Amino acid sequence: MSMLPLCPQCGSEYTYEDGHMYVCPECAHEWSKDAVEDAGDEGLKVVDAHGNALQDGDTVSVIKDLKIKGSSSVVKVGTRVKNIRLVEGDHNIDCRIDGIGAMKLKSEFVRKA
């Protein structure tokens, strides 16, 4: 049995080769074999405002007052956030802030502590 990659769009295991492309029969997503080879060593890379690489479980400090949408609360400069999780998307840090609760932050507004 050949080891074809899972579909990056839907995660299907039923991908097949079509020339120099891989195709997913479930979502009709097509991608090149070169993209799979290039993405093999790539992971989720997130950097803080100063260019330092962040990892899951790091502690960061907020470098700017951040207004919380839909609330009158503010995350103040210097607030330390422990045990962050990195996620895909625009707000790429998922965390829990004491006194506020769970929220997502942009990495451009934090620095590694």
Automatic annotation (TrEMBL):
Residues 4-32 form the Protein YjdM N-terminal domain. Pfam families: YjdM, Zn_Ribbon_YjdM. InterPro entries: YjdM (IPR004624), YjdM_C (IPR013988), YjdM_N (IPR013987). It comes from the Bacteria. Residues 46-113 form the Protein YjdM C-terminal domain. NCBIfam families: phnA (TIGR00686). Belongs to the YjdM family. This is Alkylphosphonate utilization protein.
